[in-house]
Structures are given as structure tokens and as C-alpha cells.
Amino acid sequence: MGILKGLKILDFSALLPGPMATMIFADLGAEVIHVESSKRVDLTRIMPPYDDDHEAYIHQHLNRSKKSLTLNLKSPEAIEIVKALVKEYDIIIEGFRPGVMQRLGIGYEALKEVNPKVIYCAITGYGQTGPYSNRPGHDNNYLSLAGILDYSRHKDKKPVSMGIQLADIAGGTMHAAIGVLAAALHREKTGEGQYIDISMTDAVFSLNAMYGSAYIGGDRVPQPEQEILNGGSYYDFYKTKDGRFFSVGSLEPQFRRLLCEALDIPELIDNTFNDSYYTQIRFKEAVHDAFLSKTYEEWLEVFNENFEGCVEPVLTFPEACEHPQLKARDMIVDIPKSDGTTQKQIASAFKFNDVKPQYKHVGAKLGEHNEEVLSSLGYSAEQIAVLKDKGVLE
Question: Which residues are catalytic?
């Protein structure tokens, strides 16, 4: 039994933030119906590479264990189907621009009339209010306006595009998931539903916990490569003789001692954060020069599994998949496919003592569960056929 068994979710979102949130819920046992359109196809469905059935791996990952229902939301019949579903699937997650769901007739107030206990979570770039509420944007835009990218770069260099979507996931996905679970707990206690307004810009702005608080409280403006965790100290990345990299996080005295011993710079063991800026730079340069003296493989032997000084290699993703720690944690799993085979995917990161994540199937084909969902609402085969002919089921 999934730990979230009993939660039933209608997912109107696309791309990454919403679908990843509902994937987390589905992994933990919630029932999720992904409401889609064949006319406005989720881009993750068409992003290569594809499997043998020409289904995108990205989509099959983000939408695993969910049912797919295709509706033309501009038709009155589709709106009636949504309202019928909301009587049971009483958590809504959507990622449209503000006002779209209201214009369709399935905004929060309309669905609250159908089910007063509905929990409605809207994920947008800038939120439902403010001068940017209807402005389009992407991950790098939200990070830019949140003040993060300016001090998360090298001096005199442009910000670097992240390999992961920080605003989408840490901002949208995780805040939406927490918000929905908080609202579900509140509903359990009071019987009241909630409207949740998640702004990805708000969310990543709140991640400025360290340097943002130092500025707001103490007027200290964070600068590129000037702070303890952004390259202003030896907490940084260092190139090896053959062009690979290692991460050094040996901030505490006991870890710094181990680092100095491993790098054969014992004369700098007593270097502290109270030393002058010049001394700090000298220490960082010594660490830099030391790493250049050996190849990646040679440093792997030094910083082996027995080393406890907070130094790790910067792995490629294929190397990460084979790392013994991630393998021991079962972070790659086999997900069933409809043809009886399986597909390897990244696992849920949640580990409970006696409940395991549930992986029912890879992301469904577009509209794969139309008949099943409508039949559960009492529609006959003849009625479903009529809805297909009218274009209600896209």
C-alpha cells in the first residue's frame, strides 16, 4: 500500500514542474489522472530520444504510474467530465497562465462549488498577482529575477546555465508538493479545501536563505567568488592534470587537516577563516596547484572510500549511475511497460521504513485511459463513442 493511498489528483500540467510533482505523488501511492490534449501536446512527449514505440523517455519517466485522459477543454461536455471527476479526484494541479482555467469554467471557484473540499494548486512563473503575473518565462528567467545567478558565477564571467532546472524543480515541483500535502493535512483536520498559488520566482527567491538574509538583515551584498560557498574560499572545484575535476568541501578544521595531508601541503593546515584575504587566496592557489600535479585516476586512489575529508570527484552522469552509493540506494529501477518488458528509470528518492514506492507503468500513451476513466464515471460505450466523434476526447 502506498503511503499516499487515498489521494486522488487531476493533473492539468505539462513540461516539468507539475508533472514531476504528480510523479512524486504517484510513486508514493496517489492516483493521478493526467488530463492532456492532442492539439496542445506536452513537449516532453516529443523530446528525443525515443523508445521502440517512438515514446519519449523523458515523458515516460515524468508521467509514470499516471492515467492519460485526453479532453478538449473548450467543449462543454469535457468540462462536465472534469466536474464529475472532481467529486472524487479532489486535488488539482495546473500550470496554465493565470485566468486560463477560470475562462474554461474549471477554475478554483467553479470546482469549489462542485466539491468544497477541493485542493487546487496553480504553478506559474511569477504567481497569480503582481505586474509579471501574465508574463511568460523559463527557468533561467526566474533564477535571474530572484537574484541568484549574479553571485552564482565567476567574477567577470557570465552565469552558467544549469544542467538541472533549479527553478522548475526546487521552485515549482517541491513547493507545490509541500503545499498540496500541507493543504491535505489541513483538510484532514478541518474539512476545508485550499487554493495554493505557487510562484517559481517566489520559491527560488526564498532559496537565498544564507546570502539573502545577510543582505536584508546586514546590508551585505553577495558578490561572485567572494562568499564562503560560491568560490570565495577553497570550497570550490579543482582541475586535475588530465582535465577532470574534483569538488572540495573541506570547510571544518578536521576536514581541512585531512585535505592538507592528502594534498601534501601540511604547512597550510593551520589556515583559518580568520586569516587575511591574501592568506585565503594563497591557500586556494595551493589547493589548485596540488590538484594539477596528478591525474583524475591518481586522485581517485588518494580520495578513496576511506577518505573522510569531504572531497569527491565530479562524475559524468553515466559514472554516477554506476556509483556504489547510488547503486546501494537502488536509485535506478525497472518500470513495467505495457508489452511486458521493463524500462530503467531514476527511482523515487523517498525511503520509508516499511512502505516502498509504487511503480505501476511508464508514462501512458496519449489518451490511453480514456475509456477506462469515462467508464468509471458511468459512461456507456455508446456515449464514449459519441464523445469521440464530437472531438470531446482528443
Answer: 138, 168
